[in-house]
Specification:
About 30% of the residues lie in helices and about 20% in strands. The chain is of the alpha/beta class and about 350 residues long. The protein has two domains: about 160 residues, 3-Layer(aba) Sandwich (Rossmann fold), CATH 3.40.50; about 140 residues, 3-Layer(aba) Sandwich (Rossmann fold). The strands form two sheets. Strands 3-4-2-1-5-6-7-8 form an eight-stranded mixed sheet. Helix 1 crosses helix 10 and helix 5 packs across helix 9. It is globular, with a radius of gyration of 21 Å. The two termini are about 30 Å apart.
């Protein structure tokens, strides 16, 4: 592949790079994009364009970050353009760049008002990359056909994530997601669980990018706010489990689940919801979380045997090195010169 690749993020609330502290308060989509782009930049010229960036140009770890104007063609001539999440922007970009390979990288589930996605993408010859197999299956059903241009590439976890012998607190549970991802249900189910196991505590880490009503906060909840990646991993190492017993918000991937499992922390998840069963490293992590007795039984089982190996472990297909190879194959990139993939571990 002779040209470079341009990633376009038209939806992030503010500009970001991979520089220390730049991803604070943003979500897994932005972190994933930076990790992938920094790794690919060792093989290809990579530009990241952001609608929220006000004209400034910053280079970090081989990636060039610039602004984006959807009404104008890009000044560079990339061999491929990857648009994050917005199919309407992808369609506009395709019209401005005839003959250029366009990929829509979806991290969420399009709503019903986006039924035009399938026709627009097929008509413009735009490929779609989802973040899990279950996400891709859902999108094919949404599009109403076995769309051959839809594939999936997992979100990556850091290479070095592994158990380190930190003692687990059998009374500490952890919720580490934005509150709109079912925290109101999690609170109510924790409250019910605590009537059986009153010593339990629930630490709640909130990335802080979205305020959301969650109802009354039960006793035993410890708000720990917004954490950097390294601090969050330390909580995962200490917690008995990632406590996520909600059945309304479907994850397209669930990066926090994969990361928790990689350091030996299981996740209590609702069976059959989104990508839960695909991402959890052991089927026993997925139960019917509408059943209070099932939640209590699983927590009691884990408290009795807090060393969770091999219940929770890293899935090799989620490692950054493997995911970058999948992206390189998709883009036709040359092999890497060296395996330096770890700059964003903190």
């Amino acid at each position: 592949m002779s040209g470079g690749v341009t990633f376009i993020d038209p939806m992030a609330p503010r500009p970001y790079t991979g520089l220390p502290g730049d991803l604070a308060g943003l979500g897994g989509t932005e972190m994933t994009l930076v990790r992938i782009c920094e790794a690919l930049s060792r093989r290809l010229p990579i530009t990241v364009r952001q609608s929220a960036r006000p004209g400034s140009v910053i280079s970090s770890a081989g990636v060039r970050y610039e602004g984006f104007d959807p009404k104008r063609p890009l000044p560079e001539r990339p061999a491929a353009i990857i648009v994050v999440n917005s199919w309407k922007v992808a369609a506009k970009v395709a019209r401005l760049h005839p003959g250029t390979r366009i990929i829509l990288w979806l991290h969420g589930f399009p709503g019903r008002h986006n039924r035009g996605l399938a026709t627009a993408m097929a008509g413009a010859g735009i490929e779609i990359v989802c973040v899990s197999a279950s996400h891709a299956r859902w999108l094919r059903d949404f599009c109403g056909a076995e769309e051959q241009r839809i594939r999936h590439l997992h979100n990556p976890i850091a290479e070095a994530l592994a158990p380190d012998g930190t003692p687990r607190d059998p009374n500490l549970l952890l919720f580490a997601s934005s509150p709109h991802k079912g925290l109101d249900q999690v609170f109510r189910r924790f409250e019910t669980l605590r009537t059986r196991l009153p010593d339990l505590r629930l630490a709640v880490a909130d990335p802080g990018y979205l305020a959301w009503p969650t109802g009354p906060v039960p006793e035993g909840v410890i708000p720990i706010g917004r954490l950097g990646q390294a601090a969050l991993i330390r909580w995962m190492r200490r917690a008995l489990c990632l406590f996520y017993p909600q059945d309304r918000f479907a994850e397209t991937f669930g990066l926090v689940i994969a990361e928790a499992n990689a350091v030996g922390c299981p996740a209590l998840l609702h069976r059959g919801l989104g990508a839960n069963d695909e991402v959890a490293s052991c089927p026993s992590q997925c139960i019917d979380t509408t059943d209070p007795a099932a939640i209590a039984a699983r927590i009691a089982e884990w408290r009795a045997a807090p060393d969770h190996r091999p219940l929770a472990q890293a899935r090799p297909e989620f490692r950054l090195s493997r995911v970058v190879e999948d992206w390189a194959a998709l883009l036709g990139a040359a092999p890497a010169d060296a395996p330096e993939l770890e700059r964003l571990s903190d």
